[in-house]
Amino acid sequence: MKIKDILEQQGKREIFKVTPDTAVKDGLEIIMKKHIGALLVMDENDKLAGIITERDILWRIYKDGEDALHKKVDDYMTRNVIVGIPDDDIETAEQFMTVNRFRHLPIMEGEKLVGLISIGDIVKSMAGSLKVQNRYLRDYITGKYPG
Ligand code: AMP
């Protein structure tokens, strides 16, 4: 399975984006209201400039208290974003996430952002293919296939 298969399963899902000058409080509001874990930060040319996740915001609130909410996304976002491409294998994406300890992977085609997958999407798709494999093995063992 490839990342493009997950993107296909997701269908037309909105990718929530903010700009670096967005207030952290406004970013957090999007995260809470839309039940998502991350926002992609786009610069004035609509290029990927960073990522900010619920974990970044939680950590900053823990450290700085309410002041954190009045900062800009730019102050707290991660700038060196690791990205995937649609042709990457799902196992590769899972490796990126486990080795680097993050749960969100923007997917790019050249300079163009084409999707965002989370560790949840990966677990779901791996569980799905295990279920299918399991079913075929069970049918094979119980003699449902001729020959
Ligand atoms: P997460 O587990 O996705 O909430 O992210 C944990 C940390 O990794 C946070 O500091 C994020 O800003 C950062 N992060 C999340 N996704 C990525 C990514 N694709 N590339 C680089 N850093 C990331």
Describe this structure in words.
The structure is a single chain. The protein has 147 residues and is α+β, with helices and mostly antiparallel strands. The protein is 46% helix and 18% strand. The chain has six helices and five strands. The protein has helices spanning 3-10, 24-34, 54-64, 73-76, 90-100, 119-141; strands at residues 17-18, 38-42, 48-53, 104-109, 112-118. The strands form two sheets. Strands 1-2-3 form a three-stranded mixed beta sheet. It has a two-stranded antiparallel sheet with strand order 4-5. The two termini are 29 Å apart. 18% of the residues are buried. The structure holds adenosine monophosphate. Residues 37-38, 51-53, 55-56, 78, 81-82, 102-106 line the site of adenosine monophosphate.
Oligomer: single chain
- Low-confidence segments, ≥5 residues, pLDDT <50? none
The average pLDDT score comes to 93
Largest sheet: 3 strands, mixed
Going by helix content, strand content and strand pairing, the class is alpha+beta
Number of strands: 5
Number of domains as seen in the coordinates: 1
- The ordered string of helix (H) and strand (E) elements is HEHEEHHHEEH
- What is the third-level CATH name, the topology? CBS-domain
What would you report as the Rg, rounded to the nearest angstrom? 19 Å
What ligands can be seen in this structure?
A: adenosine monophosphate
Overall geometric form: elongated
Strand content: 15-25%
Distance between the termini: 29 Å
Total count of helical runs of at least 4 residues: 6
Strand order of the largest sheet: 1-2-3
CATH superfamily: CBS-domain
